[in-house]
Every structure is written in structure tokens, then in C-alpha cells.
Write a structure and sequence with these properties.
Elements: H1 4-15, H2 23-56, H3 60-90
Helix pairs in contact: 2-3
Length: about 90
């Protein structure tokens, strides 16, 4: 007897069969992940330095603004990565 999860997965695969990716597509997607992680890490380092400097100067509003800006930039980097990955997935 199959579990509810197994039945749901079977129905899902019937409605929208999964696409298999080529080795080239997989490697390009992995490269996108790598580049995105590097960009985020680089920005995180510079943001942490800016935040530390702002807090040392007593400017806590500026530090909070930098934190918020970093969060927005991180989301933008991830959205760009996801959009590029989707283009790769849609290739034939």
C-alpha cells in the first residue's frame, strides 16, 4: 500500500513531468549558484565593515540602513540567479 505522499508525487509527475537537464545545463546552473554565493559573500563582508564603522561612530540609523540594503541586495542577487536558472531550464 502506498503512502499519501507517494500517491501525491505520482499525480504530480503525471500532471507536470519533470524535465531532465543536460550535463551542460547542470554545470551552468552550478556556476550560477557559485557566482551568486560569491557575490553575496563579498557584499556581506563589505556591509559588515560598513556596519561596524557606523556603529563605532554611534550612527545606529546608518548601520540599520546598511543592513536593510544588504538584505535587498541579497534578494536581488538570488532573484537574478533564479531567473537565469529558469532560462536555462527552458532551453531545449
Amino acid at each position: 500500500m502506498k503512502s499519501a505522499y507517494e500517491l501525491a508525487m505520482e499525480r504530480l509527475s503525471q500532471k507536470a513531468p519533470s524535465k531532465s537537464l543536460t550535463a551542460d545545463q547542470k554545470s551552468r546552473m552550478a556556476e550560477l549558484d557559485s557566482v551568486c554565493k560569491a557575490r553575496i559573500a563579498q557584499r556581506e563582508l563589505s556591509a559588515s565593515d560598513e556596519i561596524a564603522a557606523a556603529e563605532a561612530a554611534g550612527d545606529f540609523r546608518k548601520a540599520e540602513t546598511i543592513r536593510e540594503q544588504f538584505v535587498r541586495e541579497r534578494q536581488r542577487f538570488e532573484e537574478e540567479r533564479d531567473a537565469k536558472k529558469e532560462k536555462i531550464r527552458d532551453e531545449k
